[in-house]
Amino acid sequence: MSDDNNQLNTAVTPTPNPVGGNVSDSTTSVPAQAATSTTNTVLPDVKIPDSSPQTNMQQDVTTPTTSTMTNPFATPQKPVTPTDVTTVVTSPHAPQKYGGRKVLATIFGVLLIVGGVAAGVLLVQRQQNISERAQTNVQYDAQCSEVIVYDQDWNRLSLADLNGITSGSVVRFAVVGASSSGNFDKARFTINGTKTPEVTDKKPGTEEFYYQYILPEGVRSYTVKAEIHHTIWGWI
Fold this sequence. Notes:
The protein is α+β, with helices and mostly antiparallel strands. Helices cover 28% and strands 22% of the residues. Strand 4 (148-151) and strand 5 form a beta hairpin. Residues 1-39, 51-66 and 82-91 have low confidence and may be disordered. Residues 1-83 are annotated as: Disordered. The chain crosses the membrane at residues 103-124.
């Protein structure tokens, strides 16, 4: 073919000679086939295997099933089954080991307390009944006579006579007891609400205990109460 035989003509511009001469024109002929082979050189295609690290990394990132990361050092957890859930819910309501004994002990203690209180009430009522019966059956064989008033000379006076006696005068309040057994050893008086000291003095020749009293100024009425002490029965 004529095209295959074409040649690439390259014109070279004359270059001045450094010595002063001229370089002669020259024409270099390069075969067209060599230029074409150099220009049309094509590199072979390089195919990357599918198992490359880049392809695997992209697949791990984009695939949802492999995106979850797990800790290899984590303790495996036991799966929860319906039986386990039921056990957890009902376990707080299970009876304790010694609950029945505690309940029995508590009931027994309450019964003891109630029984003790009831017994105490019965004993108190019984003692009260015994005391009431004893007081009812007791009959004092002693008695106290009415209060007797004397002047300083042992003249007997009435309470009404005291109104005519001037204040500062001395009177004697006396009392005597009677009993078939035992003796009287002392007496005491309450005059207008004021208790006097206990006395053991007796009117001469008698068993009358007396208290000597000075009539206060401005008092015109008197209320006198007398008690006599028996050696067995006490104060009467």
